[in-house]
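# nightly structure sweep
# worker-07 picked up a monomer target from the shared queue
# config: single-sequence mode, recycle default, output format = structure tokens
# input follows
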Amino acid sequence: MIQTISNNHLSVTVVSKGAELQSIYGKQNSIEYMWSGDPAYWGKKSPVLFPTVGELKNQAYTYNGQQYKLSRHGFARELEFELTQHSEDSLMFSLKHDEQTLAIYPFEFLFSVKYTLVENLLQVSYIVENKGNQTMYFSVGGHPAFKVPLVEGTTYEDYRLVFNKNETASRHLLSADGLIEDRTSPLLHNENVLPLTKELFANDAIVLKELASTSVSIKSTKTSHSVTVGFEGFPYLGIWEGKGGDFVCIEPWCGIADSVNASGRLEEKEGINRLQPAEIFVASFTIAVA
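# output follows
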């Protein structure tokens, strides 16, 4: 099921499978800002990551003495969501626990993804409700892929990532199976600009923790068009491009992949969120385009 919301500035399309954002189209400049989803490079456009972010050690975790298997980034991105709200400028899709999810994730939940348009900005909200009678452990995050180059006549290397504050930050390196290693590599040195190159992603995603910035933009000196992702309240940020594709993912995360030394116990997982019965968790990031 495909749903569209629009205003004078933007038209936004979302599909019910995975509640996945498909298109952010600028009405006044005729620019599509999202990646095409070419399967030769990466077939998705903006998967929703729930109830885990990244890879689990041995693709498994334990809870209450029982082991459960769960693939990278969790199951929500592969499941059909129900459309629960729809107005001219907002959409909400919801996913509820069932026998299928309880077999691999033993928590009763209602997980909703809401998309709201405000002029040239799209707000993406994750709403997690604990419907059970025990503490719920989860991670959640976004994975939107933006087209780079944004406009004809420019190349991938013409663009750069611009953080809204100077950063001294190292990237947390990933093992061959996607786990966080003990090693880091310097990335930014009291600066806020990171030039985009395909080589940046030769060894998988850039994983950043505890940034001072609350937004990052895809910009070029050769065009005035840009994308800015605001991620205030998200403690981790992933940046990724796959197999040489003409896109870059900017991924706000409330959660992170397991480390190579992870115990496997869900309660001990780095970045895990805890939700008491009947409590509601909300995290929102924004995508502003020009």
